[in-house]
Design a protein that fits this description.
Length: 252
Amino acid sequence: MIKLKKDKVFFIGEIGINHAGSIKKIRYYIDLASQHGIDAIKLQLGSPEKFTTLENFKRFKLRSKTMIDANEIPHLVKYAKKKKILLFASPITEDYVKLVAREFGVIKIASGDINFTPILKEAFKSKKLTIISTGASTLKEISNIFKIFKDKKKVILMHCISNYPTKIEDSNLINIEYLRKKFGVHVGYSNHVLGIKACEVAISLGARIVEFHFTDNKRRSFIDHKISLEPKDFVKLKINSEKIIKSIGKPR
């Protein structure tokens, strides 16, 4: 479970589909994240035929390649627990929400589904903590979340810019503070800016949950590796986050 603290950042390494459908690689990334002090690893799970159209065969083939056998998920959760790291997922199609709710302690809703009512309603029914990214959304769309999620304690919003990669001048990190005051919930940051600088600024603005794409090698060609942090990047971010929080202090 995720418990946010004022003096500590909860870090989520998203491997998403960087594993390319390999259970062995998922275990490898769990090991790598655990060794370097990342708090959680996140996957993306869904049905290729519901995620994209068959007409877009290239995208359908790519998503099919990254599919994970649902029977493997309980074993991965158990493995992550053994390694003392949280494992959870984004259901990117509505048919996977119940499975994610059943197998994981946390649900992550991707930015593209912030106005997709079936996924939001299923997540609400699960009574699980739901993290929702806000990339490319309007204020009204964010407000509508709370027509479904009456208990704000069950929701964490993530400020996010849906551009890969995001230019740092477009990251608009002041939204972290704005959304927190506007909706009265925890607001974290989901990063698509290259490097760690935007994450550091987000932490200085009060984000105590930070998500970033994670890889062992940014030079790999498959999908999100180029915008990911490597272990050495994360170690630097973690050390700097502790210094940032200490530097903030309190009014006196």
